[in-house]
Amino acid sequence: MSVNQTTIRKNQLSDAAFVPEAPHHVDHPHKVMLGLYISVFLGMLSETSMNITLPDLMADFGISSGTAQWMVVGYMLAIGVVLPCVGFMLKWIKAKTLVLFALVCFLVGAVVCTVAPTFPILLAGRIMQGVSTGIVLPTMYAAIMRVFPLHKIGAANGVAGLVIMFAPVIGPTIAGALIGAFSWRAIFALFAVVAVIAIVCTALFFVTPIERTRPKVDVISILASAIGFGCLVAGVSLISDMGFSAAVIALLVVGVVVLAFYARRQLTIATPLLDLRALGVAAFRTPAIMISCSFSCTLAFMYLVPQELQRGMGLSSTVAGLLMLPGGVINALCTLAAGRLFDRYGAKRLVWIGSALTVAGGALFFMIGVSTPVALFLAAHIIVMVGIPFIQQSAQSAALKSLPGHMAADGSTIMNTMQQVCGAIATAVATCLLGLGQTNYAAAGGANPAQGFVDGSRYGYLFGMVLVVVVLACSFLLKESRAEPKLVPVHVDVERLTA
Fold it and tell me: Terminal CA-to-CA distance of the chain, rounded, Å?
């Protein structure tokens, strides 16, 4: 290479560091994304259908509610540990290969859960499924940013959100029906069948839209990520069974300290595992916080509601699942509508509408008792399920649209990591508050376990409403712009690349 050619090449590389990658326009983008849509749907179906099975698992394995919650928390913990590494993995491994690996992992985990003779083996299979979901979730959003043009990102995220939220629509209903007709094991058998379909669609249609740069592997960051997120979520989750014991406090302290070290390291090394500079962009950081809070509220409600219907109102798992169907259907439709409305009106007004509706629906949950008419529950659930997608989809589109293309994968990973870790913590907090409410009811002389469960659930609903108030407060700080995102300089070792 001549001197002039070298100079030109260096200038091109330097300029490229400041230019977002152009989307890979394809003729049928939704067909390309089909395998990922099914994969993420499967992951969310697995995440949301477990809540209705918890009473059956507690009876079959003779475990406490605190132990049973690990079917939910352990799954999200696995997602939270894997997610921070996905952006890095996509820079080394073909996206198609990574997705296929994740789906095979999910398939194996589903088979293990189907035949599991003990709860620890069941949990092990469940964690394998969490690893899979942790991979496909951010990969889907990173692929969307490459496959669809910028002016269609809102609508594309609306479709992705519809796919995700369709799982809560049918998840509890299908789970309740399968438990009523067969047992909870049939749910995992269904997961295995859907996983096979996702593998076939990914192998046939998915292309690799994400560029591989093969940066240096930082083993310390990988270990710090796993230890930090794992200890933090595990510590919070164990509070319901162990209280603030020395072991729990130690886990929490280790988690916080290691995560602080991890964050500092990502901001100082040349090739970070996860580019945390995205959090320095206010237009991304604010909606990312809003998404985490609204997602945490959703998971706290979805953890409490199906159990309250069964253990508080005395309904069967099949009836409980059917009662959650109308709200889920409306939620899915509003998710699709919110993505399209974002492209026209932006995020702020939609967040205000969503926050008001969610608080109103949450307030109705406080009126539910052991003999409350089903109509009140349906009204409360439907109102909340209308409000949440207006927060979630608009904030998510605003966050992703605020970043330059070369930060899309990291931004998606950061956002999804925050959601899953905060969601796991929120579920654990809801479990603790549920137990606290039951304890206070018993201490006041209450002797009806069903009423005690209803009282405990109200503590969790209050927690969810506080999270929505935080979202509303953050919405006033939300900055929206129709202009291209401000680009962040990226250090490029030109001498090494042109050697």
Answer: 10
